[in-house]
Amino acid sequence: MSLLTCDARGVYVISVTPFTDQGEIDWDSLDRVVDFYFDKGADGLTILGMMGEAPKLTQAESRAVAERVIKRAGGKPVVVGVSAPGLAAIGELGKAVMDMGAAGCMVTTPGSLKTDPQIHGYFGQVSRTLGDGVPIVLQDFPLATGVQISDEVLGRIIDDIPQVVMLKHEDWPGLAKISKLRRAEAEGRRRISILCGNGGVFLPEEMARGADGAMTGFGFPEMLADVVRLAGDGDMDRAQDIFDAYLPLVRYEQQPGAGLAVRKYVLAKRGAIGSAALRAPGAGLTPEAIAEVERLLARQEKRLKELN
Predict the structure, then answer these.
(1) Comparing C-alpha atoms, which of 96, 103, 114 is closest to residue 73?
(2) Which terminus of the chain is more solvent-facing, meaning fewer CB atoms within 10 Å of its CB: N or C?
(3) Is the peptide bond before 173 cis (omega within 30 degrees of 0)?
(4) How many Cα neighbours within 13 Å face the side chain of 21?
(5) The domain 10-300: what is its CATH number?
(6) Which keywords appear in this protein's UniProt record, sorted alphabetically (predicted)?
(7) Residue 278 carries which DSSP code?
(8) Strand ranges (DSSP E) for 16-82?
(9) Distance between CA atoms of 279 and 283, rounded to whole angstroms?
(10) How many CB atoms lie within 10 A of CB 114?
(11) How many CB atoms lie within 10 A of CB 75?
(12) What pTM, to 2 d.p., does this model score?
């Protein structure tokens, strides 16, 4: 498997981790959902992220999931989330998954970082912990971490830490950050790949600002692939039309604490996983929520037929 580079483009779907109704990892569904993502147009996968319920897995389970997915991907790139409160855990999991054939490691900022020097210094420590040559995806997700990475600090990280080859852009509002990065590159700064998260809710605008694609999840990953492809071809009107057809469900998935349950419900309904179960603590959808999702799905199908 090739390593992630600063030129990476396309859609790297954030994979769910399937569980049985009893809370055990559903290995058959894990194989099936990997195949599903690639069949629907994913260029790569990202596993053990926040929406993959990584904090609910043991270290041994995380390694086993990574090994299974990397093998199932058959040489297609797999990025592994290795974020942890301490550098020792990051190093242990990161080195293990790179030996398995991962394309790179995704790391976000712990909430304890409060100052610009701390943020800059942290990613230097991460790069040394993972070792030379390990590509790093910097996940900039202040809505979850509470850590704001300024444009200036991000620029210094890019300048000083060549192992950071990709930004997982999840700042909100953050469109201006993409524009500033691309302008800096036009003026001579090293280029990095920018893939965007937040459930894809701003994907057309992010692509127009210069993003290279998406690194997020959704119950219909083919929408992410279509929008990224169309935007890359310059057909922004068609990309927007396709996006708008799915937007009500994208919006519904954005509910804090409920979005993953919605995503898993849709994936189970589509046959990608065997159960919509979340590992405890975590609850499924109420009957009222299921009725709302079903209504959105029916309207989405109708609109897609109208768009042909």
Answers:
(1) 103
(2) C
(3) yes
(4) 3
(5) 3.20.20.70
(6) Lyase
(7) P
(8) 44-47, 78-81
(9) 8
(10) 11
(11) 10
(12) 0.96
As a whole number of angstroms, the distance between CA 48 and CA 71 comes to 15
Strand partners, 12: 44
Round the CA-based radius of gyration of the chain to a whole number and report it: 19
Query: What's the per-residue H, E or C state across 155-186?
Result: HHHHHHCCCEEEEEECCCCCHHHHHHHHHHHH
d(CA 204, CA 240): 6
Asked if omega into 162 is within 30° of 0 (cis), the reply is no
Q: What stretches of 111-163 show up as alpha helix (H) in DSSP?
A: 116-130, 142-145, 151-160
pLDDT tens digits for range 271-292: 999 999 999 998 999 999 999 9
pLDDT (tens digit, 9 = 90+) per residue, 34-89? 999 999 999 999 999 988 999 999 999 999 999 999 999 999 999 999 999 999 99
Phi first, then psi, for residue 190 (nearest 5°) are -55, 135
Q: Are 275 and 29 in contact, with CB atoms under 8 Å apart?
A: yes
> HSE on the CB side for 235, CA within 13 Å?
11
How far is residue 167's CA from residue 106's CA, in Å, rounded to a whole number?
9
What does the alpha-carbon distance between residue 101 and residue 86 come to, in Å, rounded to a whole number?
23
- Cβ distance 45 to 79 under 8 Å? yes
Is 215 labeled as ligand-binding? yes
Instruction: State the sign of the Cα–Cα–Cα–Cα dihedral 73, 43, 136, 171.
Output: negative
Domain boundaries, the chain: 10-300
Instruction: Classify residue 1 as exposed, middle or buried by CB count within 10 Å of its CB (0-12, 13-18, 19+).
Output: middle
Give dist(CA 181, CA 161) in Å, integer.
Answer: 16
